[in-house]
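Researcher: I'd like a candidate sequence for this fold, 348 residues long. If you have to choose between options at a position, lean toward the conservative one.
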């Protein structure tokens, strides 16, 4: 258990350190979310999760509820940061896309563990594609392009891990490319297209669509190996860095704690991924293995998109860094899947 939770502890400690330098309000709420996440982790020590998630009715019920919450957010939620992604409950908010990430992992783990021998059949490929397509379409409409990319990555990752032949893999990718072309032409908003175009020309419009990326690069580039010190980061403390507690928290961390802090956090995250893969290798059943691999995809894609956005390696799509970024829904979702993985480790 220690080997699995130690890297999470490092990430959480880094999160609280960065947030304490940015906002006492965010720091307090993050501690609340972490406490709830630890409660979920402890709860799973005393319940048999397999008795719950081996039921297709429960898994599909969770999927449907998550999808309906996404639809409700799209149709009735207030506009926050130009999106309808959060359902507001007084001082608290719920982001249904985070629930959908968990639901997709459970749905695909159940689906492919029963059909991995026949995964190459077109019926299974197209059916599994529809599972992700519906929530992805709602996410794009919100608009939340980052979550749509994560939904796709979970689906495509499960296809690859299920042993899909190369010919069918390329065909599945072609289906997505056609769908992506339709989304580009008829669904994406102008500023989303501008962000993607700006990714290929990061020096252009540095005060407009590329402003966040420009400030992030300044924060990282001026940090040095040891950083500027606690609450000494000019870009972060003076408000030049956009969303330093969430989307660009990795840049805020490096500005004050330097390359050393960045290496420490990335190392902890890679250790977490290694430990989850180790649990997958030791798991007894395909369903358990698929859950662990789904968690790796969810964590890994979020990590790549978040750090890529801060360094210019990927377009800025607004994705959190697992266990590092501020956010109640994402923290609870990450802890929930960690609790499941830890239960698999204990029972293997």
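Model: Candidate sequence:
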């Amino acid at each position: 258990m220690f080997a699995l939770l130690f890297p999470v502890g490092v990430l959480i400690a880094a999160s609280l350190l960065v947030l304490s330098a940015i906002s006492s309000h965010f720091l307090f709420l993050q501690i609340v979310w972490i406490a709830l996440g630890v409660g979920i982790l402890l709860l799973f020590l005393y319940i048999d999760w397999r008795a719950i998630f081996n039921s297709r009715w429960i898994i599909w019920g969770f999927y449907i509820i998550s999808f309906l919450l996404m639809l409700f957010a799209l149709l009735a939620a207030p506009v926050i940061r130009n999106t309808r992604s959060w359902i507001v409950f007084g001082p608290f908010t719920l982001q249904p896309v985070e629930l959908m990430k968990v639901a997709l992992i459970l749905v695909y783990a159940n689906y492919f563990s029963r059909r991995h021998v026949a995964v190459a059949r077109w019926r299974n490929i197209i059916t599994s594609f529809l599972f992700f397509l519906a929530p992805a379409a709602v996410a794009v409409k919100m608009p939340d392009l980052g979550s749509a990319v994560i939904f796709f990555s979970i689906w495509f990752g499960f296809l690859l891990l299920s042993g899909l032949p190369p010919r069918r893999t390329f065909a599945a990718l072609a289906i997505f490319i056609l769908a992506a072309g339709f989304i580009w032409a008829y669904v994406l908003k102008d500023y989303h297209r501008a962000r993607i175009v700006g990714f290929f020309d990061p020096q252009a419009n540095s005060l407009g669509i590329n402003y966040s990326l420009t400030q992030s690069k300044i924060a990282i580039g001026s940090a040095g190996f040891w950083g500027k010190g606690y609450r000494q980061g000019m870009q972060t403390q003076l408000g030049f860095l956009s969303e330093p507690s969430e989307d660009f928290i990795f840049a805020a961390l490096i500005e004050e704690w330097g390359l050393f802090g960045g290496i420490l956090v990335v190392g902890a995250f890679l250790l977490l991924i290694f430990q989850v893969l180790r649990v997958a290798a030791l798991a007894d059943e395909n369903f358990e293995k698929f859950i662990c691999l789904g968690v790796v995809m969810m964590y890994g894609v979020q990590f790549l998109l978040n750090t890529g956005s801060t360094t210019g390696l990927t377009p800025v799509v607004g994705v959190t860094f697992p266990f590092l970024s501020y956010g109640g829904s994402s923290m609870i979702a990450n802890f929930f899947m960690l609790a499941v993985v830890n239960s698999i480790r204990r029972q293997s």
